[in-house]
Write a structure and sequence with these properties.
The protein is of the alpha/beta class and 433 residues long. Helices cover 31% and strands 23% of the residues. The protein has 11 helices and 20 strands. The protein has helices spanning 7-10, 14-35, 37-46, 67-72, 106-122, 141-153, 165-174, 184-196, 218-228, 341-350, 385-403; strands spanning 86-91, 101-105, 130-133, 156-158, 179-182, 208-212, 231-238, 243-249, 256-258, 263-268, 282-288, 299-305, 307-308, 320-321, 332-334, 337-339, 357-364, 367-375, 408-412, 427-429. A 9-stranded mixed β-sheet has the order 4-3-5-6-7-8-9-14-13. Strands 19-18-17-20 form a 4-stranded mixed β-sheet. Helix 11 links the parallel strand 18 and strand 19. Helix 2 (14-35) crosses helix 3 (37-46) and helix 10 crosses helix 11. It binds adenosine-5'-diphosphate and zinc ion.
Length: 433
């Protein structure tokens, strides 16, 4: 286990971390310049050569890469090593458009698995744990990523993959799973199903959950924690950088520590591309300094969050990223107002609902319509019109004060909104732009 909590790196001083990052950055820029013609061309267009990169401040001289670049260079245009040196391919979930593919050498996989092992250790995991992986396996990085981390750490690993909820619950009970890894929306569904089956937190051997791959609110965390009687940890990552484990929560749960020995994070103004000071909210940009097959420099994630270098009381000095509100492209602009689904979720959970909702946006007579369908919980279910109207009005008021605009809220019967086994689909935008 000690191998996956490495205080000499994870608790190193800022000077030491800067030194590690600078050295790796200089080498990585050379590697990319020599091996990835697509990026070299971008550097040449900007008039930058590897000689210009001597310190972390020089990072800002490098051109950005965006999802559009990844699509343009699909499939092998960003390969940094001969294809024969690669051993695995993954692909994004395609949540926001055409998939992109990422490739890995054995070394890249080892590094990724180490990141996931660190995340499990930070969530209290040891080699004595039984880790059930209910993220999807396959091209999606969730399953195989946590799987690799769990095995490296020496946990007994159950590769359950997503779906088949009854079997998940049977394995959790029969095999004594102590750590559950899946998307937060699937965790909420599992928790709900266990409750319906009459299971109480004491009947559930799980003590910790590692939930990520999509944005989720603090309120949803508390909900899952009480229903299952566990501590729920956030984990962040994206296929383009390897997968889950780019950043992970420690026991303090005050943001996710970024594995800074492998990834350099920046926050930029999404409109101007200008680097913003620590603490500002903006778009997260990552430079991967160790990966060889798919070595992305200054990759724009479109995730909106902020960074904090303040020392964490867990002892780790790795910079912490705040929970991303969602991606800049998850953000809806409704009647000119920016709306993140995660803000709606916060209001619902604060009013005693669960995160079972759908947002439907359309445009009628040049005006945006904004409908929110929300499931009643079995406890609050009623068919009395006056009660339903009162509850709907309360939510309309709650949403108005959070978002500044009025939504039409419709309460629907428990279980009438389709559950997700992977990333939840919360938004249906019917507007044509
Ligand atoms: P896709 O972009 O198709 O969804 P990925 O499966 O690689 O493909 O998803 C990566 C994205 O998922 C991240 O850029 C981020 O938007 C989101 N994500 C991953 N983990 C989290 C998390 N813990 N909190 C919020 N968003 C997350
Ligand atoms: Zn910490």
């Amino acid at each position: 286990m000690e191998r996956y909590f490495q205080p000499e790196i994870e608790c190193a001083s800022r000077e030491e971390l800067t030194e590690i990052q600078t050295k790796k950055l200089i080498e990585q820029v050379k590697h990319v310049w020599e091996n990835v013609p697509y990026y070299r061309k971008k550097m040449e267009e900007k008039g930058v050569t590897p000689d210009d990169i001597k310190s972390l401040d020089d990072l800002a001289k490098l051109p950005f890469l965006s999802k559009a670049d990844l699509r343009e260079s699909y499939p092998y245009g960003l390969l940094g090593v001969p294809l024969k040196d690669c051993v695995r391919i993954h692909s994004t979930s395609g949540t926001t458009g055409k998939r992109v593919v990422a490739y890995y050498t054995q070394g890249d996989l080892d590094l990724w698995n180490d990141c996931c092992a660190r995340a499990i250790v930070a969530a209290g995991g040891t080699e004595d744990d039984v880790c059930q992986i209910a993220y999807g396996y396959g091209l999606f990085t969730g399953g195989l990523g946590l799987h690799g981390g769990s095995e490296k750490l020496g946990c007994l690993t159950i590769p359950a993959s997503s779906g088949n909820t009854d079997r998940q619950i049977m394995f959790i009970k029969d095999l004594g799973a102590t750590i559950l890894c899946c998307t937060p929306s699937y965790a909420a569904y599992l928790a709900e199903t266990m409750k319906e089956m009459g299971m109480s937190p004491e009947d559930i051997p799980v003590k910790a959950g590692i939930f990520g791959a999509e944005a989720w609110s603090e309120e949803m965390r508390r909900d899952i924690e009480t229903t299952m009687g566990i501590k729920a940890y956030d984990i962040f990552g994206l296929t383009e950088l390897s997968g889950p484990g780019v950043a992970f929560e420690c026991s303090k749960q005050k943001g996710m520590h970024i594995n800074e020995d492998h990834f350099i994070a920046e926050i930029i103004d999404p409109d101007t591309g200008e680097v913003l000071p620590d603490g500002s909210e903006g778009e997260l940009v990552f430079t991967s300094v160790d990966k060889k097959a798919f070595p992305l420099l200054r990759y724009r994630t479109r995730d909106i969050c902020s960074l904090s270098k303040e020392k964490c009381s867990c002892g780790r000095t790795f910079v912490r990223m705040a929970k991303p509100k969602g991606r800049s492209d998850d953000m809806l602009i409704i009647r000119g107002v920016n709306v993140f689904p995660s803000q709606i979720e916060t209001v619902l959970l604060n009013h005693g609902y669960q995160a079972n909702y759908q947002i439907i946006v359309d445009r009628v007579n040049n005006t945006d319509t904004f409908d929110v369908h929300v499931e009643m919980t079995p406890e609050m279910f009623t068919d009395k019109v006056s009660d339903i109207t009162r509850m709907q009005n309360e939510l309309v008021a709650g949403l108005k004060s959070m978002l500044g605009i009025k939504a039409k809220v419709t309460l629907v019967a428990p279980k009438s909104i389709t559950r997700s086994e992977g990333k939840a689909v919360r938004v249906i935008d019917k507007r044509k732009f």
